[in-house]
Automatic annotation (TrEMBL):
It comes from Kribbella speibonae. PANTHER family: NARDILYSIN, PROTEIN YHJJ. This is Insulinase family protein. The keyword Coiled coil does not apply. One of its GO terms (molecular function) is metallopeptidase activity. Residues 176-353 form the Peptidase M16 C-terminal domain. Keywords: Hydrolase, Metalloprotease, Protease, Zinc. The lineage of its organism: Bacteria, Bacillati, Actinomycetota, Actinomycetes, Propionibacteriales. Coiled coil: none annotated.
Length: 427
């Protein structure tokens, strides 16, 4: 089922890759900028820097006062945000098409001239913002530190995926303005980014605008490659058991998976979907509906390009149920999948769910722009948005079982459990 979204590409003289997908259906345009820097690029002692810049990039640049990036775009009717991940950082806005020039000017000004505004005061301010984010999202939220615990168990010390994007607060405390400037100069340049423009603009006008606002910015020296994170499936079992102020007992298992962009990862991802995706997933049918030992189950693959990906399965125990029962049931279903495989109907169901999710993502200009940037930056192929679902549909039941046997194994996992404190259980 090949899709036919139009894709046009140019590379500016400074190395900026520009991708345009014209869509005149509605007067909306999406601007999406992906930088090839994420937490896996951070060397020891500089963890959290990519995420720190997600904040600093909104604090002004040479021609934009602090706070104006948001206010100018929101006044123009835009929705905007940014995010940091293991493999990349992205910045994006969606707004009425008449605001395209404003969006591109703002993105170009901070790409070229952010450091004019990064001083000690701004660094201290945003460092405090990141610390507060960590307190709210990781430290003081139920189960908030589960992924931090899991990746520390799943990957050896020093592995590029062994720390979360939030980074180390000690590293951020030790960071000087000079450290921060050096990190920016290393990664934030036109030749280390992909700019995607999708929506109500002609292809020629979009390219002309990209050249007008970004074409004069100088290229940066080629950034160092991220360290190779290639590593095989996990062997053995490692556990981290937590007693905490949580609303319910919970278990999350993590498995290392194949690298993104391979049929083997597609197969492993579909295997996890068969277990945990939707109401028809095996775990939901057994643990939630039939045995009623779990309030909910969830899981899936997290694709990564640095030599390995990972996937998770999570179960939240029903009130009064020993969490060990949930763990035992999860392990039984994992082993059953590897031993007995899957049926054609099961596979067709999760493939149809994947197709629906993909089409929903591409249905909006913002969603399409993000996926185009994703595939252009990480795979060098923007047109992959038109062929991606066919790759998923091509996976066979034999491939799913083979991936489950190799990667999703009861004897090759890490897990974190959270149990309520005794006083809460007695209440």
């Amino acid at each position: 089922m090949p899709l036919t979204y139009p894709i046009a590409e140019q590379t500016l003289d400074n190395g900026l890759r520009v991708v345009v997908s014209s869509d005149r259906a509605v007067p909306i345009v999406a601007v999406n900028l992906w930088y090839d820097v994420g937490s896996r690029h951070e060397p020891p002692g500089l963890t959290g820097f990519a995420h720190l810049f997600e904040h600093l990039m909104f604090q002004g640049s040479r021609n934009v006062a602090s706070g104006q990036h948001f206010s100018l775009l929101e006044t123009a009717g835009a929705s905007l945000n940014a995010s940091t991940f293991f493999d990349r950082t992205n910045y994006f806005e969606s707004l009425p098409s008449g605001g395209l020039d404003l969006a591109l000017w703002l993105e170009a000004d901070r790409m070229g001239y952010l450091l004019d505004a990064v001083n000690q005061e701004n660094l201290d301010n945003q460092r405090d913002v990141v610390k507060e984010e960590k307190r709210q999202s990781y430290d003081n939220r139920p189960y908030g530190d589960s992924y931090e615990r899991l990746v520390r168990l799943a990957f050896p010390e020093g592995h590029p995926y062994a720390h979360m994007t939030i980074g180390s607060m000690a590293d951020l405390d030790a960071a000087s303005v000079e450290d921060v400037h050096a990190f920016f100069r290393k990664y934030y340049g036109p030749n280390n980014a992909v700019l995607t423009i999708v929506g109500d603009v002609s292809t020629d006008d979009a390219f002309d605008a990209a050249k007008r606002y970004f074409g004069h910015l100088p290229a940066i020296p080629a950034p160092p490659p991220a360290p190779d994170g290639t590593i095989g499936p996990m062997t053995g079992v490692q556990r981290d058991d937590v007693t905490s102020d949580v609303p319910s007992d919970l278990i999350t298992m993590m498995f290392r998976l194949p690298v993104d962009g391979t049929p083997e990862l597609d197969a492993a991802g579909l295997a996890l979907d068969i277990l945990a995706a939707g109401q028809s997933g095996r775990l939901n049918r057994r643990l939630v509906r039939d045995e009623q030992i779990a309030q909910s189950v969830s899981g899936g693959a997290l694709p990564l390009i640095g030599g390995v990906s990972f996937g998770t399965l999570t179960g939240i125990a029903s009130d009064g149920i020993d969490l060990q029962k949930v763990e035992d049931a999860l392990l039984e279903e994992i082993e059953k999948l590897a031993l007995e495989g899957v049926g054609e109907e099961e596979l067709t169901t999760v493939q149809a769910q994947a197709e629906r999710d993909w089409l929903e993502q591409l249905a909006t200009c913002a969603g399409r722009a993000d996926e185009i940037s994703h595939h252009a930056l990480l795979f060098g192929d923007a047109n992959r948005i038109n062929t991606r679902i066919d790759q998923v549909q091509a996976v066979t039941v034999e491939q799913v079982q083979a991936a489950a046997r190799k990667w999703i194994r009861a004897e090759g996992r890490v897990q974190v459990t959270y149990r309520r404190t005794e006083s809460e259980e007695q209440e």
